[in-house]
Amino acid sequence: MLSRLKRQWQHRLLKDPRYSSLFEENHEEIVSLDCETTSLKVAEAELLSIGAVRIAGNRILASQSFYVLVKPTRKLESRNISIHGLRPIDVSSGLDAHEAVSQLLDFIGGRPLLGYYLEYDIAVLNKYVRQISGTTLPNRQIEVSSRFYDYKFKQNPGAYIDLRLAMLIEELQVPALPRHDALNDAMTAGMLYLTLKQRGFG
């Protein structure tokens, strides 16, 4: 009930009809999503890259993926570069953030969004989505770490559950793709989700 009311309110705030497709729920596919940013603080974070891939049923549709580099407005700091590996030269020809997010919105449409600690990515994206469309992302969200928590809790209620991404990859035995690449991280979240889904936690 509350989620429906929230979506209605978000739809009311929509100022650009080009993005009405966000409210046309698609139950056939989901989109696994990841962003690389300049900071872990939402208020100051700028986008550096966005990766996303569609999932249908039990298949990751690798041919239907989305990846863009984004040019930040501020100079990259060396400590950030050491984490995400993106250098100033890499993002110098990237898209403007609003153009990148606009293209992402076209890609995801009304599909649910999946990710690892997705709340952060959504919060950063919404800074731009709000400026572009007048509202925030209304898409249903699927948090893979929550699904993993439920899976482990059922096995051993009350035990400490390690939710680090490396632990999820090891525990669920999915291929370890190179980290801190937005598209690779989106693919990894998709593989984790499908593995959990096969075990009844999808």
Summarize the structure.
The chain is α/β, with parallel strands linked by helices and 202 residues long.
Walk me through the topology:
Blueprint: H1 2-13, E1 29-37, E2 47-56, E3 59-69, H2 78-84, H3 88-91, H4 97-108, E4 113-115, H5 118-133, E5 141-143, H6 144-155, H7 165-172, H8 182-198
Parallel strand pairs: 1-4, 4-5
Antiparallel strand pairs: 1-2, 2-3
Helix pairs in contact: 4-5, 6-8
Structure description:
The chain has 202 residues and is of the alpha/beta class. The chain has a domain at 2-142: Nucleotidyltransferase, domain 5. The chain contains 8 helices and 5 strands, in the order H-E-E-E-H-H-H-E-H-E-H-H-H. Strands 3-2-1-4-5 form a 5-stranded mixed β-sheet, with helices on both faces. Helix 5 (118-133) links the parallel strand 4 and strand 5. Helix 4 packs across helix 5 (118-133) and helix 6 (144-155) packs parallel to helix 8 (182-198). The chain starts with a helix and ends with a helix. The mean pLDDT is 91.
